[in-house]
Design brief:
single chain, 413 residues, alpha/beta, Aspartate Aminotransferase, domain 1, seven-stranded mixed β-sheet, two-stranded parallel sheet, 15 strands, 15% strand, globular, binds 4'-deoxy-4'-aminopyridoxal-5'-phosphate, Aminotransferase, classes I and II family protein, Asp_trans, pyridoxal phosphate binding, transferase, L-aspartate:2-oxoglutarate aminotransferase activity
Length: 413
């Protein structure tokens, strides 16, 4: 019966995890997947999460009934208060529709379905490069993909001119997917001035912003600062959508807690948007899971828990920033050819190292040497993505020197 079913290649990011698990070398390091690790290289459960989990277990009033299709309104409100700020006018004026989602990916998918139904002919512009799943989600939602330049490989920074030029060619009603902070995979974000330029172009050309916020609190350690771009667009009077994830900033990778938000300047249009979100979700998975959302809601809506969360987020992002400094220091001490300031200039969970993943054709022998990334994996047992991205969250004081020496080796040889 299944003889015609074609075997597909495994997902690139999860493949690095499988290969890493199989590797018996004790020096191995996994910098593929974007998940926070402690100094000992272990997964981390936030103390505030453990605290509210105990409360949930003891709460006799909590049953296992279905949650509403779009999740509990109190949960959605809590999520949106993190994005816009507790006292934001958009919330007070009830100008945001929203639905609990299966983490950030689920929010992206639900919003893409919502956009496909209501803007069938719009293109969705993605940054070049972007998180690999963005393209796949658009494809499954039957939305047409456009791209805009983003990464300037030469300067290892933002190609703002290329970005604005490409977006100026989009048609009114087209959608622009923007990483709210800690751009994945480059770790390069626009400055506030550049965000203003982007906002002004989008407004002039009547484009619809689509913010993906998967790292709020991980870029600078400050939830408000990391939401500055979204809040700027809200102030500027856009109608837009936001996909939000608590996988990284609350360490809830497996709980799949997220939120899909549709902001409308006109409060009268919110219930129509809400009904459309519901219509997308009901035949897709019917109702969201309760547990992860209950954790998130209890962390955000208690001032004491919220404070504890922010402290732990500052700690996690601080550790990552420290690892960036150490990695750069080691590379510079080793006199590794090239410049390494981009390691500390970039922010968030990832660093786009500049190591090459494409095999180099050596002209004299017409002979393919292994790429730098191949050697990082096969010789040094350091697992990373083919595009040169490493997760800084997996770097520790114990492996940073080993990482620098491996990078030095592949760059020099
Ligand atoms: N957007 C971006 C840019 C991401 O990097 C990620 C996580 N890798 C997500 C969305 C969604 O992740 P999740 O579904 O685990 O919340």
């Amino acid at each position: 019966v299944w003889s015609h079913v074609e075997e597909l290649p495994p997902d690139a990011i999860f493949l690095t995890k499988t290969l890493f698990n199989k590797d018996p070398n004790p020096a191995k390091v996994n910098l593929g997947i974007g998940a926070y690790r402690t100094e000992e290289g272990n997964p981390y459960i936030l103390k505030v999460v453990r605290k509210v989990e105990r409360e949930i277990l003891d709460d006799v009033k909590l049953d296992k009934e279905y949650a509403p299709i779009c999740g509990e309104p109190q949960y959605v409100h809590a999520c949106q208060s993190v994005i816009f700020g507790k006292d934001a006018p958009v919330l007070k004026e009830k100008r945001a529709a929203g639905a609990q989602s299966l983490s950030g990916t689920g929010a992206l998918r639900v919003l893409c379905e919502f956009l496909k139904v209501n803007f069938a002919n719009s293109k969705v512009y993605l940054s070049k490069p972007t998180w690999g799943n963005h393209t796949k989600i658009l494809l499954k939602s039957h939305l047409e993909e456009g791209t805009y330049r983003y990464w300037n490989a030469k300067g290892r920074n933002l190609d703002i001119d290329g970005m604005l030029e490409d977006l100026s060619k989009a048609r009114p009603g087209d959608i622009v997917l923007l990483h709210a902070c800690a751009h994945n995979p480059t770790g390069v974000d626009p400055t506030l001035d550049q965000w203003k330029q982007i906002a002004s172009l989008l407004k002039k050309n009547k484009l619809i912003p689509f913010f993906d916020t998967a790292y709020q609190g991980f870029a600078t350690g400050d939830l408000d600062r990391d939401a500055a771009a979204i809040r700027l667009f809200e102030k500027e009077g856009f109608d837009f959508v936001v996909s939000q994830s608590f996988a990284k900033n609350m360490g809830l990778y497996s709980e799949r807690a997220g939120c899909a938000t549709v902001v409308s300047q006109d409060p009268k249009l919110v219930s129509a948007c809400q009904s459309q979100l519901e219509a997308v979700i009901r035949p897709m998975y019917s109702n969201p899971p309760r547990y992860g959302a209950e954790i998130v809601k209890r962390v955000i809506s208690s001032p004491e828990n919220f404070k504890l969360w922010k402290e732990e987020m500052t700690y996690m992002s601080g550790r990552i920033i420290k690892m960036r400094q150490l990695l750069r220091q080691h590379l510079e001490a080793l006199k590794t050819p090239g410049t390494w300031n981009h390691i500390t200039d970039q922010i968030g969970m990832f660093s786009f190292t500049g190591l090459t993943g494409i095999k180099i054709n050596t002209s004299s022998f017409f002979f393919n040497t292994a790429s730098q990334v191949d050697v990082m994996i096969s010789k040094h047992h350091i697992y990373m993505l083919k595009n040169g991205r490493i997760s800084m969250a997996g770097v520790t004081t114990k492996n940073v020197e080993y990482l620098a020496r491996a990078m030095d080796d592949v760059v020099k040889n």
